[in-house]
Amino acid sequence: MSGEITHTGIIKKLSEKGIIVGIINESACASCHAQGSCTAADMKDKEVEIHHFEGNYSVGQQVTVIGKTSQGFKALLWGYLMPFILLLTVLIITTSLNISEGIGGLLALAILVPYYFILFLFRNRMKKTFEFEIKPLQ
Amino acid sequence: MEYILIIISAVFVHNIVLSQFLGICPFLGVSKRISTAVGMTGAVTFVLVLATIVTYLIQKNILDPFNIGYLQTISFILVIASLVQLVEIILKKVSPSLYQALGVFLPLITTNCAILGVAILTIQKDFNLMESVVFAIANALGFGLALVLFAGLREHLELIEIPKGLKGTPIALIVAGILAMAFMGFSGLV
Amino acid sequence: MNQMNNFTKGFFKENPIFVLLLGMCPTLGVTSSAINGLGMGLATTFVLVMANIVVSMVKNIIPEKVRIPSFIVIIAAFVTVVELLMQAYLPALFKSLGLFIPLIVVNCIVLGRAEAFASKNDVLSSAVDGASMGLGFSLALTMLGTIREFLGSGMMFGIKIFPEDYGMLLFVLAPGAFIALGYLIALINRIRKV
Amino acid sequence: MTIVYTIVSLSAIGTLAAVILYFVAQKFKVYEDPRIDDVEKALPGANCGGCGFAGCRAFAESCVKASDLSDLFCPVGGNDCMTGVADILGMEAVVQTPKVAVVRCNGGCDQRPKTNQFDGASSCAVAASLYSGETGCQYGCLSHGDCVTACDFDAIHMNPETGLPEVIDDKCVACGACVDACPKNLIELRKKAPKDRKIYVSCRNEDKGGVAKKSCSVACIGCSKCFKVCPFDAITMANNLAYIDADKCKLCRKCVVECPTNAIVELNFPPRKPKTDLPPKPAAKTVEKAAAPKESATDSQTENNETK
Amino acid sequence: MVLTLFAVTLISATVLGFVHSLTKDAIEASKLKAQNEAIKSILPEFDSLGESWKAAPTEGGDSLTFFPAYDASKNLVGVAVKTYSKNGFSGLIELMVGFKPDGEISGYQVLEHKETPGLGSKAQAWFSNETKPKQNIIGKNPETTDMHVSKDGGQVDAITASTITSRAFLEAVRRAYDTYKNNLPAAEEEPAVSSEPESEGGES
Amino acid sequence: MSKLLTISPSPHVHTSESVNKIMYRVILALVPALVWSVFMFGLDAVRVTLLAVVACMGFEYLIQRFMMKEEPKITDGSAALTGILLAFNVPASIPSWIIIIGALVAVGVGKLSFGGLGNNPFNPALVGRVFLLISFPVQMTSWPVGIHAQTDAVTTATPLAILKEGVKAGQPIADLMHKLPSSIDLLYGNIAGSMGEISAALLILGFAYMLWKQVITWHIPVFVLGTIFMFQGGLFLLNPYKFIEPVFHLLTGGAMLGAIYMATDMVTSPMTHKGQFVYALGIGVITVLIRNFGAYPEGISFAILIMNGFTPLINVYLKPKRFGGKN
Amino acid sequence: MLKTFKIGGVHPAENKFSADKAIEKLALPKSVFIPVAQHIGAPAQALVKKGDQVKVGQIIAQAGGFVSANIHSSVSGTVKKVDLATDASGYPKQGIFIDVEGDEWEDTIITDDKLIEKFDTDSKTIIDKINAAGIVGLGGATFPTHVKLMPPPGSKAEMLIINGVECEPYLTADHRLMLEKGQEILVGTRILMAALGVNKAYIGIENNKKDAIGRLKELTASESSIEIVPLKVKYPQGGEKQLIKAVTGREVPSGALPIAVGAVVSNVGTAFAVYEAVQKNKPLIERVVTVTGKSVSKPSNFMVRVGTPVNELIDAAGGLPEDTGKVISGGPMMGKAIASLDVPVTKGTSGILIMPDQDAKRKTSQNCIRCGRCVTVCPMGLEPFLLMTVSERQIWDRAESDCIMDCIECGSCSFTCPADRPLLDYIRLGKGKVGQIIRSRKK
Ligand SMILES: Cc1cc2nc3c(=O)[nH]c(=O)nc-3n(C[C@H](O)[C@H](O)[C@H](O)COP(=O)(O)O)c2cc1C
Ligand SMILES: Cc1cc2nc3c(=O)[nH]c(=O)nc-3n(C[C@H](O)[C@H](O)[C@H](O)COP(=O)(O)O)c2cc1C
Ligand SMILES: Cc1cc2nc3c(=O)[nH]c(=O)nc-3n(C[C@H](O)[C@H](O)[C@H](O)COP(=O)(O)O)c2cc1C
Ligand SMILES: Cc1cc2nc3c(=O)[nH]c(=O)nc-3n(C[C@H](O)[C@H](O)[C@H](O)CO)c2cc1C
Ligand code: SF4
Ligand code: SF4
Ligand code: SF4
Ligand code: SF4
Ligand code: FES
Predict the structure, then answer these.
(1) Rounded distance, CA A83 to CA A89, Å?
(2) Which A residues, 15 through 54, put their C-beta within 8 Å of a C-beta on chain D?
(3) Is residue D82 a part of any domain in this protein?
(4) What interface predicted TM-score (ipTM) does this complex get?
(5) Over the stretch B142-171, which tens digit does the pLDDT of each residue have?
């Protein structure tokens, strides 16, 4: 599979820090008529900040946002898989230590707090990892 | 061993999508991209496990002791609806770039239906906490298996000429039906 | 007249299942017989109508911003009411609908969300809207239930049409649900086009 | 007692959950401009992409976000639709002249003898990538119907007799899909004139007169007669080929009479009064460019008068 | 804001509590009714039900519940036994089987099962079909009739294409009979009110 | 020049292979097994086969003509082949109306709903067969006794059913062995079963013919049968009391028919040999799992259908090795 | 085991009717049309105008850029006009019309047949001579040879491979050339080796030309630097990537040129042309063309002046058969069907193939049955059925990511498809489109 994922977006804001691109929704929900009445719909406005780019862009311009699939899996790892693994580990440990279910469960949930805190500390590193490219739409 | 049985049962024999009929909307609606389907499986696993733990704790520590089991539906849906969103908020606050990246790669679909369904099933099956978690994981995997298989099939369908009236959802349902039929072969395995 | 339009749209033009493709889980899950489909549909309709009425009644009291949470609470409450009532007075139906009764919540949140947004509607039109969506849903469920029951066991609403030996079991099982709905939607699409 | 538990626990869970939900609703303000829905409803819903966007909804979003509508136009809905959109958004609609696709090749089977026969994949694009075509005219229609396949609106059909595509004016929404599909660049979106009347040079042959004439009897031979006769300067000559500017053309039909090869086509005009010494050409065997002859019960009579 | 939300949940909670207390009895009653109807349908005419009691089967496992029925003159006319098998095609099958005092089966009712519709689900009708003596178990005594499917050397024909269900069904019947036989003398044991199993059952 | 020269893109030559030839060769390869089943089951076999073929072709014609409004293409032989394979997969005693429903499902649902030949992701004959198996379990599992058998019984059990019954009832394999037919019987087909699956030897003969004519390559059948052999062999070594020796599984049920004629359906199997290996591995493993642990005595139909579902994925991930490519 | 390439390949009927027909010189035509674009790259610029007198070998069009080649007059006579005319490409192209008068050669050209073995080994001198002589690859792609001989900085040629494979059915031009001009080809090979600065050359020849293999082996018996490599008969062995793989086992990476693995491939005809250019000062004005076909009465190999109309060749081979359905410039696998017999022979014309009616028409195509045969035979390891579908549906990014640009247009896929799908038709189209997209992206 091509190692890239592309989305069409519209430039929303330009600032010294970077360009903010709003991603036009392309999932199946985008063309669905019932979107307005569906909680499941993938219709949150997604925004991406772009820090490195070449050329000139203006607000309202349509661009292609390009990311690597591997980035996606990395994001998945940090966003969902790591906390999941942590949860599971704590649960396994508490169960094997014969700690009661209630406490074990609470502990498992509690582990997420430090996890997210650490994630918070690393947010600048993350920023570098999750860089996207943009290209003007031909 | 028990865990393995739970997993086989939930993934193959009583597949959440193909035989339990939960999470059909995202199954039908989401993504032709196989990598997205894989990604969604990861996200669903976490959310499902999280929700299962929380609802389990509520059931065992609040509803059961006070004998107010009938509040299951309302409390579960509230907890699930808020929990799912909470995860997103936290992610967004904690690491905006990570959140953005996820947004680019995954359709952030919260399948309340499947989550609520699994939470209730867990309670009905009278699992303990660990079994519940395994059950949740297995269901997420089952969901993922169906989703990935389907993404592949859909890619095949993309490239062929489906008769007019059957294009889109109908053919997707028929494919799901044949898949479900094939999966019936697993019946009796557990 | 307007209300009439409002009411009929759910049956055909904006049928939640055939056209909008919403709430597929119960559609597939409970339609092994016509009665089950109808029961589920009516339960959903009840919740939807009641919730819509209540929401639009309290719309001026509840601030816009907490509308969604309140809406969820209200719907969930009505679902629980239905659950309890069914358990008490329709135990058999309750048993066969099983898991899908609590799932009405999800479904109604989906079906009713437009209502939560369109705060402009008065009680009557909200109720009509709810009824329209709900009955459209019921119609679809009953249709599918009838087809599956007929093909699967040779019965319609529990009445034997042809001997059971000639039933195609598959249609009362999971795969049959998908396949029957697939062809039903195709058929409806075809009719709608003309 | 149960009722107390009920109230206490439910209120606790409920309030907590609701507060979270409330915050979520704040943070992720599902920032759906309700006008998007309205605009979308006003659009035809063909999801054809003729506007340049992924679908009608994407177009609606752009309309709502745009500061003015000058670059946005839905070819399917046309001006009426855009006025509706403008009303919803409280903006000026930019009225665009309606257009219609026109196929600029007139060389049917009878006018353009075959010099070879093509036996590859039935696709204009494939044929064009292989060679210049089945006839001597390298500019003419290849007749494999890529344009027909491209049209989402069933507005263009192959005439089996001439082997040329014909546009049904009433169905064509000027989305331009066929224009892009034609490897010979034969299709042009031209301004719609009253009653669907049109006059255009139905030829793209840039060969010198003799060569052109040899390969196709109705080719434009670049003789400039029409150019000279046009009172409105609507005709330009380039590369041995005349072109009529639809903006300048006043549909006076002088050029049509002048053209020695009948390369200029007039459509949907009332029949010419037969001028005494100019009998209409024998049966309209050459140009059969009809606007939906079968279906359009419009009053505009389909007439093809090639008069010398 | 929070207050409004609190109010909404409070009101909902109150309403729910109210509805619950209203329906609680009805739910109980309907459950009881279902049980009593089941008992009624499988035992000969009786006047009153005695205290139910529980007993574990000899081979271990969850205990069975016994409902003795008496006629006007307090003579035992039969005992309904709530029994089960976990070896159904889709797991648990729950039955209520009625025995006359001599051990003859007076009737049975399938309470709970997840067998395949159209296959295993035929059990209710199959084993009570009076016109097919080879598959009918009503009026037979497990003492004299081998309650195994004929394939396994028994005397009862299995449901067509559903041997598994049939085996499980007969296993439950045997379990009921064996436990019944072993526990009849202990009829005087402390009566315990049975708690209903959680009603569950998704379609599919 | 009076005659027009033909112009077409290169290449200008073509093999003499055609779809029709491929299909008719497969049909030819199936003829010995068909003859055997007529010998075993008499006119019933003829009735079922004819009916299935006629119904498949008829439905294909009607649907293409009147519903899809296109030129019917029943002469390409694929519908006939689907019919034969469907017939091969049912008991010879099946009522006629059931086989007609099966043909409708196979052709209508399994094939034409996807646009016809070449487009269907699932094997049409198996879609029809599994549909029937689930819908009419009674009729689909009542195996007629061969017309030459010296018994009064009308129906009998297939070796796999006997095995499954025995194992479910907890009997050790050794006790079951003498109830089961010998390997020789299995090989030439003196057993109960679906019409076309009984004679392993004749099916292999057809396989040899197809290999000779290069209709298929050896990969899928050999991998499928190999996997069954290895996996069952492993189980057998692990616990010979519970699991039977592997050759039995190769020769019984639809293993041969499935591996040689149905798993190889090119429309629904992966393109590359790598992919075919994974596909065949999946079929073998699932078959053994279902046969040993599932509710059904026979699992190859399900296994093939399930792996058909995986085929698009396999095709995406196991691309051919590109010339000059990295991997 | 004979060497060959590993993946894919087909074996169409060989039909080499003219294999034992010695090369004949074709009579001079009455007039010629010499297109100015006979090679890959920029067209040459015409140097003559109407009315000019030209001699054989006189330069009449100057290379129009680095990747371009000079064009020389193949006849002597008067320039009639410089104008458009349809050539084998099927489109009208610029070219020079010359009316033939006598046969007067440029003085510098040595016209006798005597073998000259000695040559100046200076690379630059050789390349300049080749460049001046307008030599392009005669194997079909007509890539200017002097460009090939100047590897881009950073890459170094290690070996020369002479392509004597001639894997196309029917064609025998290279075969005859190797038999009759073996010594010249070897000298040409040595010249090319000197130009490249390599000391190893392989000549790859398919095993259906045993006589040519024998002849060249005999001539190189004492020479270790030139090795004759017999190859298994398999189309498209002549494709340079396949040939390199077969001869050396090296695989040219996707998207790269042969030089990436240190190889330079030239056709035997090119080697002969190089010999003539360097040793005899004779520019590329004539070449061997096979005229053949099932119903051609005299299948032949002709030495033909560039610009000669095709119908003169056909006449010399016994005239156009009654049942002619298609005339192909080149071989049946890669050649181009031509619409008119007036098109001229150019530097790249290796054969004229006349196909009878019954072979000319394709069978109607059916749905793809996904049999995978096209995948199996594709020598580049592609999935033709997929590439065709995505091209037909214009999913260009998918086509690109599935390596459509690697296709060498060998036609094995279309040849083998049992459903008669026009695979290559669409793949070629897709290749063009994707190529455009890639180029526009680079800009
Ligand atoms: C989807 C499916 C559902 C089935 N349901 C049951 C069932 O509920 N009860 C049962 O005994 N067998 C059921 N079976 C059949 C068993 O798998 C098994 O074939 C049968 O019980 C034993 O065969 P016999 O009764 O024909 O000897 C089912 C099979 C399938 C495929
Ligand atoms: C832009 C370009 C640059 C090339 N440069 C070289 C080169 O440096 N060395 C070389 O051996 N061949 C070079 N080639 C020639 C190709 O490798 C190849 O020989 C030519 O495309 C014809 O190949 P064919 O006859 O196999 O189709 C180049 C080709 C192109 C298009
Ligand atoms: C499919 C295919 C087949 C080819 N067959 C031959 C062949 O048989 N003989 C040959 O000399 N060149 C053949 N070529 C051209 C070679 O790839 C290569 O361009 C040529 O040998 C380079 O030499 P040249 O530049 O001197 O022509 C073939 C190319 C392709 C793509
Ligand atoms: C080797 C081979 C095996 C085939 N196997 C089947 C089969 O199992 N079932 C079937 O319906 N058609 C089979 N066909 C026919 C055909 O491919 C099939 O009908 C297509 O799936 C229809 O699109 C087979 C064809 C070939 C060449
Ligand atoms: S005819 Fe051309 S411009 Fe008109 S609707 Fe069709 S594709 Fe669009
Ligand atoms: S107009 Fe263009 S696209 Fe249409 S058939 Fe003619 S050549 Fe093809
Ligand atoms: S050879 Fe033809 S039929 Fe076979 S896969 Fe390729 S395109 Fe399809
Ligand atoms: S033409 Fe291209 S795709 Fe086809 S076999 Fe040759 S290299 Fe492969
Ligand atoms: S109803 Fe949509 S996912 Fe269940």
Answers:
(1) 10
(2) 24-26, 30-31, 35-36, 43-45
(3) yes
(4) 0.86
(5) 999 999 999 899 888 988 989 888 988 899
